[in-house]
């Protein structure tokens, strides 16, 4: 796989890009991105071969990329500069990718995160997704797969921006016993404020926007977390259990988020 990466990197001229010296903070863009809007991507990867090949692929997609090879420098850069995407390796010197993901998710601005993980390290994938990563790619990966993942993250980010624009026009959802302020991310249940995490709030808003609609776990993964990988439906189950404990009178007999056996969940709209 690494031999193929080196061969692809050597063929960088075919991408109409300049392969820069291996410096952590250098930007690269394609000469002609066409009508596509340029996206800014921070790549955090300490393997120089993988990092340079990822940069080539981003250039092919019309992105402006910055490559950084250690965690501390990358976190400072991500917090100081607005990026459309952070491609984040898990194993990094000085500060690992999971800690960076946690810190970025605690910040005011939301930046999509695509994790690069080892194929054998399921725990890293699970932790990354639980901490708020939007998607992941396992090593070794192909460039077409990486491109598809990046495009998917951008597509979901655009959809989220459209929903946010709509929410600014109508930023409150009120159903029986439940009030959500989408702009302030504030929730009230039966007149009482409820503290929710970002994903819990987004999950509840997804249900409340479509009372009575049945969502499969895969649909919820795609809409709330931005991925639908088989085997990670337990992420939905975990968050729904936490959410029920916060908003239901009796979590074992829920009024709001009801189980549809063999299918998924729906918003029951029986809060009063």
Structure characterization notes:
The protein has 272 residues and is of the alpha/beta class. The chain has two domains: 2-163, Rossmann fold (3-Layer(aba) Sandwich); 170-267, Arc Repressor Mutant, subunit A, CATH 1.10.10. Helices cover 42% and strands 21% of the residues. It has helices spanning 2-10, 48-60, 71-80, 97-105, 122-131, 143-169, 198-209, 217-225, 234-247, and strands at 27-28, 39-44, 63-68, 85-89, 113-118, 135-139, 172-175, 178-181, 186-189, 192-194, 214-216, 257-260, 264-267. The protein has a six-stranded mixed beta sheet with strand order 1-3-2-4-5-6, with helices on both faces. α4 runs parallel beside α5, α7 packs across α8 and α7 (198-209) crosses α9. The longest helix has 27 residues, at 143-169. It is elongated and about 55 Å long. The termini are far apart. Mean pLDDT is 80; it is low at 1-36.
Integer count of domains: 2
Q: Characterize the biggest β-sheet.
A: 6 strands, mixed
Tally of separate helices: 9
CATH topology description of the largest domain: Rossmann fold
Distance between the termini: 59 Å
- Per CATH, the architecture of the largest domain is 3-Layer(aba) Sandwich
* Name of the CATH homologous superfamily of the largest domain: Response regulator
Under CATH at level 1, the class of the largest domain stands as Alpha Beta
Radius of gyration: 20 Å
Low-confidence stretches: 1-36
Order of helices and strands: HEEHEHEHEHEHEEEEHEHHEE
Specify the helix fraction band. 40-55%
């Amino acid at each position: 796989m690494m031999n193929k990466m080196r061969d692809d990197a050597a063929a960088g001229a075919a991408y109409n890009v300049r392969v820069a010296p291996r410096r952590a903070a250098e930007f690269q863009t394609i000469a002609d991105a066409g009508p596509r809007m340029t996206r800014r991507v921070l790549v955090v990867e300490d393997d120089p071969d993988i990092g340079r090949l990822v940069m080539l692929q981003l250039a092919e997609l019309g992105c402006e990329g910055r490559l950084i090879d250690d965690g501390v420098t990358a976190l400072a850069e991500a917090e100081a500069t607005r990026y459309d995407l952070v491609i984040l390796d898990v194993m990094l010197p000085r500060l690992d990718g999971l800690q960076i993901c946690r810190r970025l998710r605690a910040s005011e601005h939301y930046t999509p995160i695509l994790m690069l993980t080892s194929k054998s390290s399921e725990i890293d994938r699970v932790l990354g997704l639980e901490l708020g990563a939007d998607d992941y790619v396992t090593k070794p990966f192909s460039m077409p797969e990486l491109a598809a993942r990046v495009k998917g993250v951008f597509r979901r980010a655009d959809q989220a921006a459209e929903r946010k624009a709509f929410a600014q026009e109508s930023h409150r959802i009120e159903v029986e016993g439940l009030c959500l302020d989408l702009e302030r991310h504030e929730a009230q249940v039966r007149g009482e404020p409820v503290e929710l995490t970002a994903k819990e709030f987004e999950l509840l808003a997804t249900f409340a926007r479509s009372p009575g609609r049945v969502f499969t776990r895969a649909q919820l993964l795609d809409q709330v977390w931005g991925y639908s990988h088989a085997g990670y439906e337990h992420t939905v189950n975990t968050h729904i259990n936490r959410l029920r404990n916060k908003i239901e009178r009796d979590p074992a007999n829920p009024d709001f988020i009801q189980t549809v056996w063999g299918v998924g969940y729906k918003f029951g709209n029986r809060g009063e």
